[in-house]
Amino acid sequence: MTQIQQALIREHYLTGEADGKWDATTVAAMQKYQADHGWQTKLMPDSRALLKLGLGPDYSSAINASGSTFAPAPPKGNAPSTLTAGFVEGSGVNQ
Questions:
Q1: How confident is the model at residue 32 (pLDDT cuts 50, 70, 90)?
Q2: Which of 18, 21, 50, 85 could bridge 5 with an S-S bond, Cβ 3.0-4.6 Å?
């Protein structure tokens, strides 16, 4: 809760010190933040709001994170003939 309040303070939606309490002032600040971004304001906090406030999960070490070394996908239509030979024979299409 303190992190949410600190983020709302940083974004100028809440004033004062973060005390970790989900009080009426914090609820109003989160509602305004979500409304200003065009998101729903009934359920709080909205996951999009948390992500936008920088409070979402950290995927920097995920397998598909930036800087990963994956082999590039082969271009479409260049499947090896060993993979397509059975299909071509079975379809009756002559190349």
A1: very high
A2: 18
